[in-house]
Design brief:
alpha/beta; Rossmann fold; Immunoglobulin-like; eight-stranded parallel β-sheet; 18 helices; 26 strands; globular; binds beta-D-galactopyranose
């Protein structure tokens, strides 16, 4: 499989997001000097500045960015140039209203916000291609430019599209996919409620306001279509930039948003993936759902991004309090937290950290989205903290390019993810289990990677992991079962949860004993099933005298010949029936749990397989401290991140070198409140 993502930073790099169009030109030179003084060597610019280059249709002016980029060369500042298509100019949407995305009632969005365009308007594609061509041909050769960002946060703000252009394109997509209306009617199960289509022009993007809901099979295809549309739009821009960019410069886009196969987009179109890191969004969540995690919960997103691109960068790293005038009331990062969050990014694999933004904007909806500097432009505590962070970051240059160490893998795929958009049963299981697997991994210090499974996945992608969880592969096909089988036959352990294998890839339920196509691997038969009732005593199972939680849903399992029962339900009407089975398949094995996963049952499963505590010989750290390892060329770098407002005591069981100072440490060590330490061990 061809993977374009070849770009890697060759040293730890610090950046910021700068908007020359927001400031008096008189500030530019001093801003760049101050950035350099702090350690910032790269800035991202331009991503909303269409009108600075095309103030009216077809008239292009370059004086503004010419002047700024020339100044960057003079000051030794490198630039990532953003294409401006997230915010079309007023002249454009006024003259061509068909470029606007619509809400699900078909009402167009208006000028004044952002991301209010649709990917499928032919005129928007044409005008976008033209501005990108103008920018890339002029600025890609410029010596200040080192990379390109396509658009800004594809599918952020809104990930659904209901304009006329989208219906037109969806019809073509459906035709390409199914060829005949008979095939489409079959795949979408249109015999149900008399939905049969007899002509292609009867097909529209789903119209969710309808009484009786929408067809779930069509909806699933609609999400595939949105993803394809976004990727095609990204490709259109990438193809243009690639014609002009200097060798060694990169193409990226920032952020990871819903209804978009970010893996495919990155693999096929980008040289590297970048992410926007705002752990403050995790504040204020219900503490009973995510005890102790709060900002640390953001590690779940970082794990997802690492799966898209192991050596990613951070295009936007939170610097100050975050909110818009219209929403969010987030606190300021406390002293130390900005660096903690940035170090969390580095621990997860990022070698480029660019802070959002240089100076807090004095106008517009983001006046409360605080950058490094405040409105008053004075040096503040964040500047002081950043200088300190930079010293630490540069001490980590040997870590640049190092791999994140994972003890197990979590399989995910977009078909099942998108099915949870439409299927509330599936959503309940998958969200719960993925959350609990994440929490279990965090509090037990058992790091994991997410692996994206596709029809063309190879066993080499799965083989590095001794254990793979695939919590609820509701939709499955022969190709994916085959690669899972190959993984297990080679010695891997595969763990599946309830409701596995009962749909095909159209989302139709299969008329087979569950877990459907997976039965050949699990050697188990689901003979009955039920949601557990919140009114009743929680259901649990006995596992060799241990209590095994079996929350939310219970598949009541019957082992086929050759399958071992590890645990049986202990209560409810199915007490005594199998809850967890194990089947040997060649050199490996498959475990089938009849329920969803909980942080406790995941801990027990990881212990049973023997991967629970990979760092036990290296470090003793409390649950509240994150322990992460990156490794390269036989060198191991251990990151310890303290998310709490009190110091945390850890014990290094082997001598380590604290990279920030070069000091040799062994035994007990105190990490300050919101502090971090990185040891070479
Ligand atoms: C990001 C976006 C930035 C800025 C920031 C703070 O999602 O890319 O342009 O809006 O959030 O809201």
């Amino acid at each position: 499989m061809k993977n374009k993502q070849s770009y890697q930073w060759n040293e730890m790099t610090m950046g910021t997001c700068y908007y020359p169009e927001h400031w008096d030109k008189a500030l530019w030179a001093r801003d760049l000097d101050r950035m350099k003084e702090i350690g910032i060597s790269t800035i991202r610019i331009g991503e909303f500045a269409w009108s600075k280059i095309e103030p009216e249709e077809g008239r292009f002016t370059f004086a503004f960015f010419d002047e700024f980029l020339d100044l960057c060369v003079e000051k030794g500042m490198k630039v990532i140039f953003g294409t401006p298509t997230a915010t079309p100019p007023a002249w454009l949407t006024e003259k061509y209203p068909e470029v606007l995305n619509c809400n699900h009632d078909g009402r167009p969005y208006y000028h004044g916000g952002r991301r209010h365009y649709n990917y499928n308007s032919l005129i928007y594609q044409h005008l976008s291609a033209r501005i990108v061509e103008q920018e890339a041909s002029r600025y890609a050769p410029h010596p200040a430019v080192v990379g390109w960002q396509i658009d800004n946060e594809l599918n952020c703000e809104i990930g659904e599209f209901y304009s006329k252009a989208d219906s037109d394109a969806f019809r073509l997509w459906a035709r390409d996919t199914y060829d005949t209306l008979d095939a489409l009617n079959e795949a979408w199960g249109t015999a149900f409620w008399n939905q049969t289509y007899t002509a292609w022009d009867q097909i529209y993007v789903p119209r969710p306001g309808n009484p009786g809901g929408v067809n779930p099979h069509m909806y699933l295809d609609y999400y595939r279509f949105i993803s394809d549309s976004a990727i095609r739009y990204c490709k259109m821009q990438a193809d243009i930039i690639r014609k002009y960019k200097k060798p060694g410069d990169f193409i990226t886009t920032n952020g990871k948003f819903r209804n978009l196969d970010n893996h495919r987009m990155a693999r096929e179109q980008l040289d590297v993936f970048t992410y926007d890191n705002y752990p403050n969004f995790a504040h204020g969540v219900d503490d009973t759902v995510r005890p102790n995690l709060l900002d640390r919960h953001w590690a779940k997103n970082l794990t997802e991004v690492r799966s898209v691109c192991p050596h990613f960068g951070f295009m936007e790293q939170q610097a100050g309090a975050g909110s818009w005038v219209s929403r969010m009331l987030a606190p300021s990062p406390r002293p130390g937290q900005m660096s903690l969050w940035a170090m969390m990014s580095v621990a997860h694999g990022s070698d480029f950290v660019s802070f959002f933004r240089w100076r807090t904007c004095v106008m517009g909806t983001e006046i409360y989205w605080h950058g490094i500097l405040d409105y008053d432009d004075r040096d503040n505590r964040r500047v002081a903290e950043l200088k300190d962070f930079y010293k630490k970051l540069k001490a980590l240059d040997p870590v640049c390019g190092a791999e994140y160490t994972a003890a197990f893998g979590l399989l995910k795929d977009y078909d099942n993810d998108w099915d949870t958009n439409v299927d509330s049963w599936h959503r309940r299981f998958l969200e719960h289990s993925e959350e609990e697997i994440f929490v279990a991994a965090e509090v037990n210090h058992t790091p994991y990677n997410i692996i994206n499974i596709r029809d063309d996945s190879s066993v080499e992608e799965l083989a590095p992991y001794p254990v793979l969880f695939y919590p609820h592969p509701t939709l499955i096909n022969e190709a994916r079962v085959a690669v899972l089988r190959a993984y297990v036959e080679q010695g891997g352990t595969l763990i599946l949860g309830c409701r596995s294998g009962y749909k095909d890839m159209t989302g139709r339920c299969v008329m087979m004993p569950q877990p459907g196509l997976l039965q050949a691997l699990t050697g188990s038969n689901v003979t009955d099933f039920t949601f557990t009732s919140p009114e009743e005593e929680p259901v649990w199972a006995d596992w060799d005298g241990q209590k095994l939680e079996t929350p939310i849903f219970n598949d009541i399992l019957t082992p086929l010949e050759g399958t071992r029962v590890l645990a049986s339900y202990a209560n409810n009407y199915y007490a005594g029936a199998a809850a967890l089975t194990e089947r040997r398949v060649d050199k490996g094995r498959v475990l089938h749990l009849g329920s969803t996963f909980s942080r406790e049952n995941v801990r027990q499963l990881l212990a049973y397989i023997g991967v629970l505590e990979p760092f036990a010989g290296l470090v003793d750290a409390p649950e509240t401290v994150d322990v992460i390892q990156r490794e390269k060329d036989g060198r191991r770098f251990l990151f310890l991140l303290n998310y709490l407002p009190q110091a945390a005591e850890i014990t290094l069981k082997q001598p380590g070198i604290l990279l920030y100072t070069g000091e040799r440490v062994e035994g007990s060590y105190s990490i300050p409140a919101y502090g971090t330490a990185v040891f070479e061990v």
